[in-house]
Amino acid sequence: MHFSGDTSTIKFFVGATWILDTVHVVFMCHMLYYYLITNYGVPTSLEHDVWSFPASLLVNLFVVITVQCFFVHKIYYLCRPRVKWLVITPIILLLLTHFAFGMETVVLLLVNGEASAIKQIRFYAATPFVATLVLAEVLTTTSLCVLLYDSGNRSAFSR
């Protein structure tokens, strides 16, 4: 399919997102194969993390950050000039915090290498990792909904 209205930047962004998402799925399939096929019936294999688990978290972190940055970019250009920085600054700060907690989680999982590490890092790395993403996505969604609602006032169609 060819979309002549899309710029080459958007096409590159979509292609890169597809590739990164495919790599994420490959890592998850490797992890499932390792635990469910290779080590079938070996409960002690569940005590150790396979390398593809933290690697899939890392790739997924990059996918989420790039997609959220795309939405922040769209919000920036759709907002009124007086409020655009007020709207996107909290989202950017939450995304940077999410990235930092995500990198911390991945590094701690790689360094420790045991499944019990998830229990140990749950409160100071994994929970804030997820919580900051939820907050960023709520702010992004709310901003986009408000912008969509406000753009309806300038629409050619009546409500």
Helicity, as a percent range: over 70%
The averaged pLDDT comes out at: 86
Count of alpha/pi helices:
4
Report the portion of residues in β strands.
under 5%
Q: Which spans of ≥5 residues are poorly predicted at pLDDT below 50?
A: none
Would you count the extended β strands for me?
0
Class by alpha and beta content = mainly alpha
What is the succession of H and E elements? HHHH
Biggest sheet features:
none
- So what's the overall shape? elongated
Q: What's the N-to-C terminus distance?
A: 34 Å
Could you please describe the fold and organization of this structure?
By secondary structure, the chain is an all-alpha fold. Helices cover 77% and strands 0% of the residues. The protein has helices at 8-38, 52-78, 84-112, 116-151. The radius of gyration is 20 Å and the shape is elongated. The chain starts with 7 loop residues before the first helix and ends in an 8-residue tail after the last helix. The model has no long low-confidence stretch (mean pLDDT 86).
Q: What labels would you give this structure?
A:
mainly alpha; 77% helix
List the helices and strands and how they pair.
Blueprint: H1 8-38, H2 52-78, H3 84-112, H4 116-151
Helix pairs in contact: 1-2, 2-3, 2-4, 3-4
Tell me briefly what this model is.
This protein is an all-alpha fold and 159 residues long. Helix content is 77%, strand content 0%. It is built from four helices and no strands.
